[in-house]
Backbone:
């Protein structure tokens, strides 16, 4: 069974700190891995997508890494801001275009 | 360029009723996938449509069915609604072949 696990389930950090969200997956034959942001009651916003042949992607204060051999990905957020408060979901796609999601990490940035 | 649009945004039904949710994909996309997201959980894959056919399906009962039209838009139908069907239903569209999926804002379905 394909599974995606995200640790921690919830995280509160003071504004300005750097933080790391963790994701592990069991399927070694992933096509890509994606990090999404979800605000309460809203849909998903794609943050970063890493193809299986890549090791990392960066966008502004966000950096995502991928280690297929160990089945792990991390999302690094630099200089956190209150507006970063949201749920962050990790997901991977297989070659059938099916996405498997983790349960997410609820992030709260304290002003 | 409009992204993925879903309708309605909110819906309230009672147990035993039937519901139809609609999704219009992003321009240029030919594949539509549906996901169910219960409160506090990650989205769960329901099924995917490509060329008007169901291409693959997740672990959902036959009460969940769908359709894709020639213009690539899609419907999700749920029969004999249960309390446990209360969730946010997300539609995602993409070009086939492992391309990134773009998500709509979802339909919030509440079953009383």
Residues:
């Amino acid at each position: 069974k394909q599974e995606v696990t995200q640790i921690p389930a919830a995280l509160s950090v003071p504004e300005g700190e750097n933080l790391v969200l963790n994701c592990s997956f069991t399927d070694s034959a992933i096509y890509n891995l994606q990090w999404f942001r979800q605000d309460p009651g809203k849909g998903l916003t794609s943050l970063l997508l890493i193809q299986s042949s890549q090791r990392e992607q960066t966008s502004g204060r966000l950096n995502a890494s991928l280690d297929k051999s160990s089945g792990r990905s991390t999302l690094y957020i630099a200089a956190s801001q209150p507006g970063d408060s949201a749920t962050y979901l990790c997901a991977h796609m297989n070659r059938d275009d099916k996405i498997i999601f983790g349960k997410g990490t609820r992030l709260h940035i304290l002003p | 360029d409009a992204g993925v649009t879903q309708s309605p945004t909110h819906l309230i039904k009672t147990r035993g009723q039937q519901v139809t949710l609609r999704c219009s994909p992003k321009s240029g996309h030919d594949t539509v996938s549906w996901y169910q997201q219960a409160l506090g959980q990650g989205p769960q894959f329901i099924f995917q449509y490509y060329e008007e056919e169901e291409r693959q399906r997740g672990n959902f009962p036959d009460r969940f069915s769908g359709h894709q039209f020639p213009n690539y838009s899609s419907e999700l139908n749920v029969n004999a609604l249960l309390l446990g069907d209360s969730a946010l239903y997300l539609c995602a569209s993409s070009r086939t072949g492992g391309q990134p999926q773009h998500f709509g804002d979802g339909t919030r379905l509440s079953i009383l």
